[in-house]
Amino acid sequence: MPSDLISRDRLRALLEGARGKRVAVIGDAMLDVYLRGDVERISPEAPVPVVRVRERRLALGGAANVAQNVAALAATPDLVAAIGNDSAGADVVAALEKLGAPTSGLVRTSRPTTTKTRVVARGQQVLRFDEEVDHAFAAADAAALGDAVRAAVARADAVVLEDYNKGVLGESLIGAAIAAAKARGAPVVVDPKYHNFFAYRGASLFKPNRRELDAALGAAVNVEQPDALHEAVERLDVGALLLTLSEKGMALVTRGSKQIHRIPTTAREVFDVVGAGDTVTAYLALMLAAGATLLEAAVVANFAAGVEVGKSGAATVTADEVLAAFDAHRAAGAAGTPATR
Question: How far apart are CA 181 and CA 3, in angstroms?
């Protein structure tokens, strides 16, 4: 059981140790828009439902969601990202200011702020539409992002590289961020996508999901075969690989070790998986900043993910919620009842 891999006292100490830490979160920030309403008829113009919108809610997404998960642990996120000179960009700034997070790392560009709008009716997502541009940045914007990265990493206890393939994390910026983090002695946690998948050499912890790893390597990876995952670590040239496996939990492989740690999921109820990866990434960085081992960081992040998927949309998870999840998981194990499903 995951609760056997860490004591409650150690868990509490790490969560308390995360308070006040500073994490540079570098990557693609987004604004999530939720339009919630009711469907009572089909449009006479086309065979589609008509949703009468009753509520409009805004939320931070992508790297900005990682930042708000960092803030939820009473730590400081330094978000480095690109936003547009538009209302969505202003909404991102306002949301970060409400968290008490710095906004100096946000670079305003001529590109629009990446926005994902979900239309929800009767608890079901009817439609999602994305407004985004993902081509390369102009030279001046790229230079401004580079300056923001160097400034954020220079004061960071940990660094997150959060890639959603929207263009912020190009090879040169990735290399500069990792080099600066190494010089500072700060751990680097990477949440990759298929672009630049092999550009994160030297990162401390590389966290793809199974689909992303298979796509990058060009073949399905046998997660039951130790040699396959160790070869992936060597090819990626990273300190460790944390492979997220959805309902099957996680697999942690450390470079130079022959062992694979399998961490079962602790989720007792799965309501919405949106944002779970962002929560995991934030917790990994903060636990490493607080002095956790790679295995301890993965176990704590796993508990946080189990809490997050029980919430609607991209949500944050507090230290108290993680402790409660740990207690519930241990109690269920002691009683001999299933702790996961």
Answer: 31
CATH number at 287 reads 3.40.1190.20
Kindly state whether residue 340 falls inside one of the protein's structural domains.
Answer: no
Both tokens of residue 166? 């929207």
Length of the chain, in residues: 341
- Average pLDDT value for residue range 108-132: 93
| H or E stretch at 17 | helix 8-18
Nearest to 141 by CA among 165, 167, 107: 107
Residue 274 covered by a domain: yes
CA-to-CA separations, 45 to 41, 42, 49, 51, 54, in angstroms, rounded: 12, 9, 10, 14, 22
* Domain around 18: 2-335
Within-domain flag for 197: yes
For residues 284 and 339, give the distance between their C-alpha atoms in angstroms, rounded to a whole number: 22
Pick left, alpha or beta for residue 112 (phi over 0 → left; psi -120 to 50 → alpha; otherwise beta).
Answer: beta
**Which pairs from 100-103 meet CB under 8 Å and 24+ separation?**
100/71, 101/67, 101/68, 101/71, 101/76, 101/77, 102/76, 102/77, 102/78, 103/79
Question: Within a domain: residue 11?
Answer: yes
The H-assigned helical ranges of 38-86 are 63-71
Contacts for 221-225: CB closer than 8 Å, 24+ residues apart? 223/251
pLDDT bin (cut points 50, 70, 90) of residue 246 is confident
Task: Give me the pLDDT at residue 81, please.
Answer: 98
Task: Spot the catalytic one: 78, 91, 141, 278.
Answer: 278
Q: Give yes or no: 278 in active site.
A: yes
Q: Which helix (H) or strand (E) holds 262?
A: strand 260-263
Counted domains in the chain: 1
**By percentage, how much of the chain surpasses pLDDT 70?**
95
Residue 22, pLDDT score: 98
